[in-house]
Amino acid sequence: MKLKVYADRMSQPSRAIIIFCKVNGIQFDEILINLAKRQQLSPEFKDINPLGKVPAVVDGRLKLFESHAILIYLASAFPSVADHWYPNDLSKRAKIHSVLDWHHTNLRPGAAGFVVNSVLAPFLGRALNLQAAAEAERLLTKSLASLETFWLKGDAKFLLGSNQPSIADLSLVCELMQLQVLDEKDRLRLLSPHKKVEEWIENTRKATMPHFDVVHETLFGAKDKFQKQREMGTISKPGLQSKM
Ligand SMILES: N[C@@H](CCC(=O)N[C@@H](CS)C(=O)NCC(=O)O)C(=O)O
To answer: Ligand 1 centre and the CA of 156: distance in Å?
Structure first.
């Protein structure tokens, strides 16, 4: 039976799973769980993930959620996946786990917290929150500095001094891609002091092309829509109600 991937391409961990499958020739059916329509809360989807979050996968009798667990499972279960994504070498694997764990308590709450509370909240049925956005921005800035000065070592193209991408590169870069929906000056203010981070995003994009760009089309569509609304003055500032 073919792998089923339950995802919304506006969700950064969903994009990481879809890109990973495509790059590695894993056959799958993609099932849209539209977050803007709250489909993650439907009884049918909650039978797959009782916690009501995407991504989730079903492979035969296995139902699995949490993107890092899914990436590890796919890299281990599908022989078409090249070793560099999740190396057999245990010390390399352990280092990848170290980045993934760090990501979930640092970069992810920083980036997602800032983007949701400063732009996306009204589309997810919540109010924008200036204070939460400011707190998330502090964590995001600190996380970007840790990436620049620690996780991206020397002249290597990818995390942990590697010259080939791992599941950690894909997960973290997909997280950072959501900054695309910010106003350009906010995005530049956050990212441009971190040249290594900018180069690494581009390296990961190139290593996973053309799938990277195709899977990010939904996000780029949203970016254009938000930009037009900013120009027309119909998008709210954080802390105010959206006019949408
Ligand atoms: N730690 C989870 C995070 C999953 C997650 O937060 N998914 C978001 C979309 S990016 C979601 O489904 N949110 C819906 C909700 O919270 O109601 C993972 O890596 O898979």
So the answer is: 30
For residue 53, the ligand 1 atom closest to its alpha carbon is 12
- Going by alpha carbons, the residue nearest to atom 13 of ligand 1 is 53
The letter for the amino acid at 44 is E
Give CA–CA dist 225/221, Å, rounded: 6
Residue 235's pLDDT is 63
Query: Cβ distance 154 to 161 under 8 Å?
Result: yes
Predicted structure pTM score: 0.94
pLDDT in tens, 118-155: 999 988 888 999 999 999 999 999 999 999 999 998 89
User: Which superfamily is assigned to 3-81 in CATH?
Assistant: Glutaredoxin (3.40.30.10)
Domain positions in the chain: 3-81, 85-232
Ligand 1 shell residues, CB under 6 Å: 11-13, 35, 40, 52-55, 66-67
Q: Whose CA is nearest to atom 6 of ligand 1?
A: 53
Lowest mean pLDDT among 189-198, 202-211, 235-244: 235-244
The CATH number of domain 85-232 is 1.10.10.60: no
